[in-house]
């Protein structure tokens, strides 16, 4: 029975993503964004359970990728499609959102066969990209920073963001993976520093802080890599 628990959590991740897509296409973008966060929780928890119970399996790996493609690929694409559709009369521009699931699929497939990604990620992880996009409805609705809200209400800003993040998914950039072989401070100083900074940013700035945390993750990873060379 224990060996099925990680896969059950993965299915909860998939269910969160499927529900979020339905909500997004009905215009309930805040609720859809919450589904991404729920999926991220289950995505973390299934991996944690697999390690705890030593319940790894080829089925679990493939199921995890399929769930991530829905929750962090198709669901963010649905949100962006709706956001761009609200801001433009162009019948074509909203379809730039299709880049998200396509490049997410490439990223996930590469991860499954790339032996270099045991202790690092190469390219932006698909869940991180999904979480970044999930902040958009919150930022645009709360209007905490008028200049940022105005910028995001420009459809081409969103299109450029999609293109940039889609590229980062498959970019040959080594980013931190939070797998600890030791918990000593010095070897993990960049990881601990990022975790502390991202927690503070999210607590203080909410959705804006969470979005900044994803950007900070990329920057800290690059600095960390340069320090090791």
The major sheet is characterized as:
2 strands, antiparallel
The amount of beta strand, in percent, is: under 5%
**C-alpha Rg, in Å?**
18 Å
How far do the termini sit from each other?
Answer: 46 Å
Q: Mean pLDDT across all residues, rounded?
A: 94
Choose one word for the global shape. Answer: globular
Low-confidence stretches: none
| Helix/sheet category | mainly alpha
- And the CATH topology? Four Helix Bundle (Hemerythrin (Met), subunit A)
- Proportion in helices: over 70%
Strand line-up of the largest beta sheet: 1-2
Order of SSEs: HHHHEHHHEHH
Q: Regarding CATH, which class?
A: Mainly Alpha
CATH architectural arrangement: Up-down Bundle
Q: Write down how many β-strands occur, each being a DSSP E stretch of 2 or more residues.
A: 2
How is the topology of this model organized?
Elements: H1 5-25, H2 29-53, H3 58-87, H4 99-113, E1 120-122, H5 126-142, H6 146-152, H7 155-170, E2 174-176, H8 189-205, H9 207-228
Antiparallel strand pairs: 1-2
Summarize the structure.
Helix content is 74%, strand content 3%. It has 229 residues and is mainly α. Strands 1-2 form a two-stranded antiparallel ribbon.
Tell me what you see in this structure.
The chain is mostly helical and 229 residues long. It has a single domain (2-228), classed as Four Helix Bundle (Hemerythrin (Met), subunit A) (Up-down Bundle). It has nine helices and two strands; from the N terminus they run H-H-H-H-E-H-H-H-E-H-H. The protein has helices at 5-25, 29-53, 58-87, 99-113, 126-142, 146-152, 155-170, 189-205, 207-228; strands at residues 120-122, 174-176. The protein has a two-stranded antiparallel sheet with strand order 1-2. The model has no long low-confidence stretch (mean pLDDT 94).
């Amino acid at each position: 029975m224990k060996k099925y628990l990680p896969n059950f959590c993965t299915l909860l991740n998939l269910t969160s993503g499927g529900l979020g897509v339905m909500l997004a296409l009905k215009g309930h973008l805040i609720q859809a964004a919450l589904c991404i966060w729920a999926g991220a929780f289950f995505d973390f928890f299934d991996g944690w359970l697999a390690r705890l119970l030593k319940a790894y399996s080829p089925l679990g790996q493939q199921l995890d990728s399929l769930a991530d493609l829905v929750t962090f690929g198709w669901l963010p694409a649905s949100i962006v499609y709706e956001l761009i559709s609200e801001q433009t009369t162009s019948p074509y521009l909203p379809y730039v959102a299709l880049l998200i699931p396509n490049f997410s699929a490439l990223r996930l497939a590469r991860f499954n066969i790339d032996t270099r990604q045991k202790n690092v990620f190469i390219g932006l992880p698909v869940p991180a990209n999904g979480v970044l996009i999930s902040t958009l409805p919150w930022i645009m609705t709360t209007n905490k920073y008028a200049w940022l809200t105005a910028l995001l209400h420009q459809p081409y800003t969103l299109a450029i963001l999609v293109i940039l993040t889609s590229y980062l998914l498959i970019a040959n950039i080594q980013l931190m993976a939070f797998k600890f072989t030791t918990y000593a401070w010095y070897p993990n100083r960049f990881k601990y520093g990022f975790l502390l900074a991202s927690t503070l940013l999210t607590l203080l700035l909410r959705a804006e802080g969470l979005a900044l945390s994803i950007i900070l993750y990329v920057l800290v990873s690059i600095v960390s890599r340069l320090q090791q060379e």
